[in-house]
Amino acid sequence: MQPDDLLKGRLKLRHLVMLTAIDDQGSLMRAAEQLHMTQPVLTRGLRELESLLGVELFERGPRGMTPTPHGRAFLDHARTVVAELRQAGRHMTELSAGTAGTVTIGTHLAGTNVLLPRAIAALKAERPRLTVVVREATPDLLTQDLLAGRLDFTLGRLVPTEESRLRQHTLYQEPIRLVTGVGHPVLSRGAPALEDLLDYPWVVPVTQTALRQELEDALWRRGLSLPENRVECTSILTLRTLLRETHMVAALPQLVAQQDDQLALLPTALEMVGQTVGVTVPVGRVPTSTAQFALRHLRTAAARIRESLDTAV
Questions:
Q1: What's 116-176 look like in SS3?
Q2: What are 96-139's pLDDT values in tens digits?
Q3: CA–CA dist 266, 180 (Å, integer)
Q4: 3-state class of 216 per DSSP?
């Protein structure tokens, strides 16, 4: 195959959509269900693409479909093409709708319960017809959706990444604090030692999050580990209710607790645990005018939060 052979008409957009669906779902059956087609049709489409490229794209194994090295390389390009076409469609929709439009933001638990609502309120006050879609998931799933063009950008805790297709922009630094409900018995002890807090059940982030790893590292440096009596949770609503109604302990971004009069910040220090809050965008993808508008409001709201955090130090 020559490089320009893909431009001669045999490669179809449906081939790229099929390919990314198979990778996302890990099996032909689930991918066919997602695309609302039969499995034989999907299998035939995959064979057509493999024949056109002259390579095998997936290996079939006991755990489903796994991309080959050729498959992984071509998938990166396929996702970029599909994402760009999604973006082009949204551009056309926005131009037709005038000031209306949609911005889709991905976030997670450390994803700024103060920043995002403030920014949304400000942009909706200026453009009431603009639709804001907020999708919450773990960082790994958000990255997948961002690269696929299903999100305009993600907002939350920034961690180092080797993903060259993404660019991170810092908004502010926020401390991570230990938190309980206001009725927790440990509050009567003044400044309890970290060891004493492990006698209580904890609510901790799931293992796919950076905060979970940093929390474990902070305890390890003290010769400690997470209590066996714990709940792993990324739902802020569930977490808040657990803290309010039980004697659990959690490590949360400072602003999460400050905005809730039913939660209390403990003076117990968590050494070397903090978070950088920011946005992540795909490299080289031109954001829609609606996404740019949302980003401007996020930066404005973040600047005010940054000032308040600096003042509190």
A1: HHHHHHHHHHHCCCEEEEEEECCHHHHHHHHHCCCCCEEEEEECCCCCCCEEEEEEEEEEE
A2: 665 568 899 999 865 567 899 999 999 999 988 888 999 988 88
A3: 7
A4: helix
- DSSP string for 258-304: HT-TTEEE-----TT-EEEEEEEEETTPPPPHHHHHHHHHHHHHHHH
Q: What is the pLDDT of residues 188-226, one digit of tens each?
A: 887 888 898 999 999 998 887 778 888 898 899 889 999
Q: Does the pTM of the predicted model rise above 0.85? A: no
Is the distance from CB of 232 to CB of 207 less than 8 angstroms? Answer: yes
Beta strand residue intervals within 68-113, DSSP E: 101-107
pLDDT at res. 312 = 56
Long-range contacts of 258-262 (CB under 8 A, 24+ apart): 259/113, 259/114, 261/182, 262/181, 262/182
| Residue 116 token pair | 């995002």
| CA–CA distance, 174 with 185 (Å, rounded to integer) | 27
- What one-character DSSP code corresponds to residue 8? S
A 10 A CB-CB count for 72 gives 13
The phi, psi pair for 276, rounded to 5°, reads -100, 120
Angle separating helix axes 289-312 and 115-126, nearest 10 degrees: 130
What's the one-letter identity of residue 299? R
Query: What percent of the chain is modeled with pLDDT above 70?
Result: 94
State the greatest distance between any 2 C-alpha atoms of the chain, in Å, as a whole number: 75
Pair of tokens at residue 42:
């999907």
Which residue(s) pair with 177 in the sheet?
252
Can you tell me which residue has the tokens 């194994």?
Answer: 61
Give me the torsion for CA of 33, 28, 139, 77, rounded to 10°: -110
User: What is the C-alpha separation between 84 and 90, in angstroms, rounded?
Assistant: 10
- What confidence score (pLDDT) does residue 284 get? 82
> Given phi > 0 = left and psi -120 to 50 = alpha, else beta, which region is 156?
left
